[in-house]
Write a structure and sequence with these properties.
- GO terms for molecular function: acyltransferase activity, transferring groups other than amino-acyl groups.
- By secondary structure, the chain is α/β, with parallel strands linked by helices.
- It has 14 helices and eleven strands.
- It has two domains: 132 residues, 3-Layer(aba) Sandwich (Peroxisomal Thiolase, Chain A, domain 1), CATH 3.40.47; 215 residues, Peroxisomal Thiolase, Chain A, domain 1, CATH 3.40.47.10.
Length: 380
């Protein structure tokens, strides 16, 4: 059995004043409407970030009793992982229609904290926290410093990632920075330094928002209103929790998750028409592009140069504006998938990538800790 995405939607975004559950319900009902289905059709649910019992809480709020759930917490990569697990559950006959959902009101609530219990006995708490790092930026800044040193790259190369994201956001009416105007490299470099070498403009937004996907069998999806988006391959990798356990800061787990996803799909990096890559920080993008094989180690700095990833460039990247200029409600992974689906369905208006046939979505969680890659394609 082949699995497809039949529906995709966002909740309200930005500064909403809504509760987490209200944002979840909004995203779910919109995605089901997009698929031509209703809550009565849902027998599988995957969600995270609400509480320790996210799936049961959201199911109760929606008034459904699913036969399969997943509420694995893996940070921003969780939703790409859910796509894999949902597909496996559908193929195994555990359920027929899975909704993957997420919502966060962290901007309205004035907090970056996701729901959960704070552990105090972990190696990270014992051996890293006493030195006062800013979580998670100081960890990513460490990787960025290492990257600039080893590969003789410049901060301008990091800045290009943010500049390109803003250009895409200017084409997306739903982007938080849609009306903010262009961003220049000097704007990024001259922004307040947060954790060297990363400035405020190297960091993702803090917003409310959420989204949802509806997955079912390809055969069933073909009878629904929207063109089905076919799941071609997936892969994941977990490398570390704290930074003291990271073997090599410059070899992210995307090297393994991407290899597994491409092998399953029978494709390679050259087959990807549009990519949605987690951009919690500008360095995340450079490391992930190299890990996924779009360029070699140390080559991402030059790979993103010459407007390659901007609108009209040879490698369309983060076409919604990404976490840097579109939206970042605590975890972005689900919204990367929503944008990938819309690009393959040709629904993106001024930011549409012509004739997009294969899309990649890659989530990163923690401090370069968890990694998950999904490849999607049009129904041929």
């Amino acid at each position: 059995m082949t699995v497809a995405i039949a529906g995709a939607a966002e909740s309200d975004l930005g500064i909403t004043g809504m509760s987490i559950l209200a944002l979840q319900a909004q995203a779910v009902t919109r995605a089901l409407a997009d698929a031509g289905l209703s809550l009565r059709d849902v027998d599988g649910l995957a969600t995270s970030g609400v509480s320790r019992f996210s799936a049961s809480l959201v199911a109760e709020y929606l008034g459904i009793s699913p036969s399969w759930t997943d509420s694995t917490f893996a940070g921003g990569s969780a939703f790409e992982m859910y796509v894999a697990r949902a597909a496996q559950a559908i193929e195994a006959g555990q359920c027929s229609t899975v909704v993957i959902s997420y919502g966060s009101n962290q901007r309205s609530a004035g907090s970056r904290r996701l729901a959960g219990v704070k552990e105090t006995h972990t190696p990270q708490q014992q051996f890293e926290a006493p030195y006062g790092p800013l979580f998670p930026i100081s960890y990513y800044a460490m990787a960025a410093q290492r990257y600039l040193h080893v590969h003789r790259a410049e901060r301008e190369h990091l800045a290009e990632v943010a500049v390109a994201a803003r250009e895409w956001a200017l084409l997306n009416p739903r982007a938080h920075r849609h009306s903010a105007g262009p961003l220049t490299r000097d704007d990024v470099l001259d922004a307040p330094m947060v954790s060297t070498p990363l400035t405020v403009a190297d960091c993702c937004l803090v917003t409310d928002g959420g989204g949802a996907l509806v997955l079912t069998s390809l055969a069933r999806a073909r009878d629904l209103p929207r063109p089905p988006v076919v799941l071609l391959g997936y892969g994941e990798a977990t490398t570390n929790d704290g930074m003291i356990a990271a073997g090599d800061l410059l070899r992210p787990g995307s090297a393994d998750s991407g290899r597994r996803a491409f092998a399953m799909a029978g494709l390679g990096p050259g087959d990807v028409d549009v990519a949605q890559v987690y951009d919690s920080f500008t360095i995340t993008v450079l490391l992930t592009l190299e890990g996924l094989g779009f360029c070699g180690p140390g080559e991402a700095a030059s790979f993103v140069s010459d407007r390659r990833t901007r609108p009209g460039g040879a490698f369309p990247l983060n076409t919604s504006g990404g976490g840097l200029s579109y939206n970042h409600p605590g975890m972005l992974g689900l919204l990367l998938l929503v944008e990938a689906v819309r690009q393959l369905r040709g629904e993106c208006g001024r930011r549409q990538v012509p004739n997009a046939q294969v899309a990649l979505a890659h989530g990163t969680g923690g401090v370069l800790s968890t990694h998950a890659t999904v490849l999607l394609g049009v129904d041929r």
